[in-house]
Write a structure and sequence with these properties.
Number of strands: 9
Strand order of the largest sheet: 3-2-1-4-7-5-8
Number of helices: 9
Strand content: 15-25%
Number of domains: 1
Shape: globular
CATH topology: Spore Coat Polysaccharide Biosynthesis Protein SpsA, Chain A
CATH architecture: Alpha-Beta Complex
Structural class: alpha/beta
Order of helices and strands: EHEHEHEHEEHEHHEEHH
Radius of gyration: 19 Å
Oligomer: single chain
Length: about 250
């Protein structure tokens, strides 16, 4: 079975179209699949619309998170509820088509994971990003590659597919709830000896981005720094050292 995890936050305008597209495609492909939609702190009609879709299709399942906790926490909740041998992730806005997600899944083979990239040769970005966003994206990726030793040119693309056994091994250790979740996931899979490949994709952002780069860039840098420190063995050594000092002084 294929599990498709879709984190959704206040997505009432787009969730029905996205679900209909994915249901129609995977039924046509005669696939055994489930779509686990994690409604993350929604205050609009997102959950109601998902329930309506679920009443028409047994392939759709809704999981609630009452308070908004970030995309990472929503995906982790999806991981815990997924039943498929293959677990995939996709954005709620339909930027990745069902065909492109299925391509990732079919490319898995003996690998533990395959992730989509908007920056590899052969990729096609239908809606071009602004120059400022492209510069920010490339700068962020360079920082991630230097700090975490990851070989990927696009850790942040929302479409990814993994073997369930690989995900099950790292889920208990995942802590990040914001956009840096993808980095932690790929880092922990790498440290666990998993083989993850990156392949070109066709990607089209739906609607105009509302990102405020002046606010997002400092937040991105700070979050990545905190994640890097939290994953460093020196952090554990220092924490362990300070935790044992009071005992020795007694």
């Amino acid at each position: 079975m294929i599990s498709i995890i879709i984190p959704a936050c206040n997505a009432e305008r787009i969730i029905a179209t996205t679900l209909d597209d994915y249901i129609r495609y995977f039924v046509k492909e005669n696939q055994d699949f489930e779509i686990v939609v994690v409604a993350n702190g929604c205050v609009d009609r997102t959950s109601e619309i998902i329930d309506e879709c679920a009443s028409r299709s047994p392939n759709v399942k809704l999981k609630h998170i009452i308070s908004s906790t970030g995309k990472g926490r929503a995906v982790i909740e999806g991981f815990k509820n997924a039943r498929g041998d293959v677990i995939s992730i996709v954005d709620v806005d339909g930027s990745t088509s069902p065909e492109e997600l299925h391509k990732l899944i079919k490319e898995l083979g003996d690998d533990d994971g395959v992730i989509a990239s908007r920056w590899l040769p052969g990729s096609r970005v239908i809606v071009k990003q602004t120059l400022a966003r492209r510069i920010a994206s490339r700068g962020f990726n360079l920082l991630v590659r230097l700090m975490f030793g990851l070989p990927f040119v696009d850790t942040q693309c929302g479409a990814k597919a993994f073997k369930k056994r690989a995900i099950d091994e790292v889920v208990p250790s995942l802590k990040t709830s914001d956009f840096a979740f993808d980095i932690e996931l790929l880092y922990r899979l790498s440290k666990n000896g998993c083989k993850v490949r990156e392949i070109p994709t066709v990607w089209g952002e739906k609607g105009e981005s509302t990102l405020n780069l002046k606010k997002v860039i400092p937040a991105m840098f700070l979050t990545v720094m905190i994640l890097r420190m939290s994953l460093s063995p020196f952090t554990w050594i220092l924490k362990n050292r300070f935790c044992t000092l009071p005992t020795k002084l007694r």
